[in-house]
Every structure is written in C-alpha cells, then in structure tokens.
Amino acid sequence: MMSASTSSQPRKPTVIITIGMAGAGKSTFVQRLNSHLHTVNSSRPPYILNLDPAVAHVPFEPNIDIRDTVDYKQVMKQYNLGPNGGILTALNLFTTKFDQVLELVEKRAETVDHIILDTPGQIEIFTWSASGAIITDAVASSFPTVVAYIIDTPRTTAPATFMSNMLYACGILYKTKLPFILVFNKTDVASHEFAIEWMQDFEAFQAALASHPGSRDADGEPTYMNSLMNSMSLVLDEFYKHLKAVGVSSMTGDGMQAFLDAVEESRDTYEKEYVPELGRARAAREKSLQNVKEASLSRFMRDLAVDRDKNPSATPNERWESEEENEDEDEDEDLDVDIIDQSEESWPGQYIDVTRMRRQDEQINWPRPG
C-alpha cells in the first residue's frame, strides 16, 4: 500500500530518448512531437535537449543545446578526428558535465510533463560508447524513461534493411534495459503494416525474404545471407513479443497520439519493472562498495598498528587538519555551472562558454584523454 507521503509527491515528467539511424527523421519527429504536446497542453510544454553537436539547424528551440558547450569542428581539429569520431568525442566531453544538465532539468521537473532528448544519428553512441550509457543511466535513475527507436519506414521495405534495424534495436534494448518503443516514421510515404506483419508472422517474413531478388544462388539454393536472416528472425521472435510498435508521420502528425499512449504504457513498465531492478542493483553496488571500504579500513588499521610499533616517536605528530586549515580549500570547491538553459532569461555577466569558438583564428586547448 502506498504511503501518504509517497502519494502526495508530484508526478515526475517522462523522459523520451529518441534514437535512430542518420536520416530516420529524429529531429523532425521531435519537432512534430513538440508541436503536438504544445497543442495538447500549451501551459506545460516539453523540455527539449539537443545532443547532436554537428547539426546545422534544428526545427525546434531546444532548452539545452550541446552546441552551446562544445564546438564539434574544433574537437575534430584538436583530436585529429573525422566527422563520426568528432561527434562521439564531443558527446563524451559533454557527458562529463551531465550532472549539471540534470540539475537544470530537475529545476523544471514540476512544470513539464515530458523531457525529450534528440540524439545524433551515430548509433554506436548507444551500442558501445560510454557516453550513451552515462546519459541513459543518469536520466533513468532520476526520471521515468522510455527509448523511442525511430525507423525510416520506406527504407525498411527490403527484408535485409528491416533485419539490420531490428538487430540494432535489439542491441540498444539490451544495452539500456529500458522500456522500448519502435517508431516507424514517414508513414505518409509508406505504410508500416508490412513491418508489423513481419514481426508478428515469421512465415510472412520468410515469404518476403524468398521473393526478394538475390535470395537464391545460381543453383536455385537459398544464399548464405538468406539462411542467416531466416535464422536471425527466429531468434528475434521473442524480442518482438515484448516490443511496442507504432507508426507515425512526422510531416502530417498522424500517429502522434498513439505514440504518447505507448509512452504512458511504457512508463508503467518502467515503474513496475525497471525501478525495482534499479533498487536491487543500487543496493548490490552499495553493499559491494561497503565491503571494499571495510576491507581497506581493516588493512589500513593493521598497517597503522605495525607502523606505530616500529616508530613510536612519530605517534604524537599524527593529527587531522583543523577546519580552519581547510577553509581556503573549501572555498574553491564550488564550480560555476557551464551548461546553459536557453529558456531562462539572460542576466548581466551570464556565463559565456569559451569552448564555443566564434572565430576561425581562435585556438582551443582541450585536455588530452588519459
């Protein structure tokens, strides 16, 4: 039974992390979702974060923009990186300040119902990079979080492309362990019904695969890739059963309400399944850390006893520094917030990020990793 103190707590906003391949229409989807939420409740507009450092233009006004903190082109220059490596490194640098992002988001938590993250098309950020795990773990430990995997529906009509998308989605699901929604975008161009059928009916996918050009070799036998995709579709059959899938059009707005309904259902899944698992993982981590601390303290006390036996004359000099001696050091502990919330009004002397380069002749010195 829920206690009175728990039931009286305000409802936390839902975080929607949009992930997908480059060109899948993530930014346009976020813009349409932003417009839809403004229409539904203009008094509680969504709070939006742009995490793509290389985008030239976004069709919405983000509250927090990574481009205000990290200059992607200068990161490429300083680290001798290509475009993809520059985006990945820029996001890694940004995540070192993600605690400040959470502070700004939490300040607005009582005034918004949805927090939306628009991410880069470099999907490896969420498959193996540390920055993707840091972002998802940080927001999921503070707010109910849902992953929306955006799929370019017209391009997935080929069985091989469809399977590639599903494998990426499967990898991200098991990496994040968060409620997951497949969003088939651009349904105004091509209906997503074929994809739903392939997910629900293994034989329908097999038939589509067999009829696709190049599915058989010169002897009329199924090719290696054809057999491989057949096998993978069997493996993913269990994966499909636990997924929510919706079709939307970011151009017309069709399907947006169905997506929000799926988000609410996924929020319930988060609270029933993810929160208890998060609590168990946190308790196990704290217990492990406590064991390490106790073991370290025990070793230290043994070493201290041995040292005192060997050098008894040094014992009177052992003492803790007084509070007065540490006073000057404590004054330097408070750091200025470097992340900018663009929805807040500016004030005199507002922080200006020196890493945001304005002229080509300016130099930047990023710390070398390691």
Automatic annotation (TrEMBL):
Compartment annotation: Cytoplasm; Nucleus
EC number: 3.6.5.-
Keywords: Cytoplasm, GTP-binding, Hydrolase, Nucleotide-binding, Phosphoprotein
A GO term from the CC aspect: nucleus
Key word Phosphoprotein present: yes
SUPFAM superfamilies: P-loop containing nucleoside triphosphate hydrolases
Family to which the UniProt record says this protein belongs: Belongs to the GPN-loop GTPase family.
Subunit structure: Binds to RNA polymerase II.
Protein's name in the database: GPN-loop GTPase
Origin species: Boletus edulis BED1
